[in-house]
Amino acid sequence: MTILPGPQCTTMTEVRAGVDALDRELVALLARRFAYMDAAARIKPGREAVRDEGRKAEVIANARAAAVAMGVPEDVVAELWERLVEGSIAYELARFDAMRG
């Protein structure tokens, strides 16, 4: 099935196919993002360096600004990024511990 851009969809089957395809792309992008968390866990000098509240705020602000620029709900994006960053920190801490035994 051809995946149509949202504005061109005329049936829910087309919408669902587009959403499903996009979800697969998003998961692939998340896998790439978590590979950076693996690198961070390997590079950071100590466990205390994993949580960086200033960087967390910057990442969420960047996502919020991108949402505004793209015309999508900035509060929703900020909430998603809050969860994404916290999940990334938890993942990075676990990887940090696993790498150092």
TrEMBL record:
Transmembrane segments: none annotated. It holds the Pfam family CM_2. InterPro entries: Chorismate_II_sf, Chorismate_mutase-related, CM_dom_sf, CM_II_prokaryot, Isochorismate_pyruvate-lyase. It comes from Sphingomonas hankookensis. Keywords: Isomerase. This is chorismate mutase. Residues 6-96 form the Chorismate mutase domain. It comes from the Bacteria. Coiled coil: none annotated. Its EC number is 5.4.99.5. The lineage of its organism: Bacteria, Pseudomonadati, Pseudomonadota, Alphaproteobacteria, Sphingomonadales.
